[in-house]
Design goal:
By secondary structure, the chain is an alpha/beta fold. Helices cover about 35% and strands about 20% of the residues. It has seven helices and twelve strands. The model is unreliable at about 175-180 (pLDDT under 50).
Length: about 260
């Protein structure tokens, strides 16, 4: 079994909310590890993450300890960076044993070719400001300047402020999804449609069986003929995860519900 989750946004919100989300996530990791061949964390696991050479963000001790425990036991944990945790260094790999990917990948799992990506920089050609910000935040030079020129306390304060601003934008757009008790399985959903369209275009020229995205905070299981796209929800709003079984069937799940 292969498990997928994204947009946990650890550290977001007030202290009580953040702690509750972390406990739920750690419990899920424990459950998934019972029969997991691999656990895929598809971006924005942290609401903000920035590593200095000798400093890592305060908090997340339960999550980091659990991830280290799982990889020590031989469970493969694969981490895809998102727009909130793109500034990962070597800490999660070296100390927690995670396999880090900073760009989309196609992997063969259960005999299926699975395209995995957070989805934050896809189908944004018509959004020049977003493209500009992506270029800034992914600049190695600016990352180096930020690391050497900004004290960690100020850097993390700025990072959490910016992350909160970004999350609020997602929350407003995905407000309709906040009351969902099961994944959306309709043929069209405007919020996640750009990623589905990306999958449609990509599958025309590449042999891919399944697509798994995060980022949009809205759980959706889209099936159009041979195209199958799963979009994972945000754990503070629409907790969800996906499971790929040994037969190659990908299922999007929410607490107490599964897609049909």
């Amino acid at each position: 079994m292969y498990y997928f989750a994204s947009d946990i946004h650890l550290g977001a919100g007030d202290a009580a909310t953040a702690r509750a989300v972390e406990r739920r996530f750690v419990a899920w990791l424990d459950d998934a590890a019972r029969d997991a061949e691999a656990i895929f964390l598809v971006g924005d696991i942290f609401d903000f993450w920035f590593e200095y050479r000798r400093v890592v963000p305060k908090g997340f001790v339960r999550t980091l300890g659990k991830l280290a425990e799982l990889t020590d036991r031989g469970v493969r944990v694969v981490f895809f960076t998102g727009n909130h945790d793109m500034w990962v260094g070597d800490y999660l790999a070296r100390e927690c044993g995670l396999e880090i990917h900073t760009s989309p990948e196609v992997m063969t799992l259960s005999g299926k070719k699975v395209f995995i990506a957070h989805g934050d920089n896809m189908k944004i050609d018509g959004q020049p400001m977003l493209k500009f910000l992506n270029r800034i935040f992914r600049s190695r030079t600016l990352r180096w300047l930020f690391s050497w020129g900004v004290h960690p306390d100020w850097a993390l304060r700025f990072g959490h402020w910016w992350s909160g601003r970004s999350r609020k934008g997602h929350g407003e757009e995905a407000a309709r999804g906040a009351s969902l008790t099961e994944p959306y399985t309709g043929s069209s959903e405007p919020h996640t449609e750009p990623l589905v369209e990306y999958a449609r275009e990509y599958s025309r020229t590449h042999a891919v069986d399944l697509f798994v995205f995060g980022h949009m905070h809205f759980p959706r299981d889209c099936r159009e003929g041979r195209l199958h796209v799963v979009n994972l929800g945000c754990w503070a709003e629409n907790p969800s995860y996906a499971v790929l079984d040994a037969a190659g069937e990908l299922t999007l799940k929410m607490p107490g519900k599964t897609s049909v």
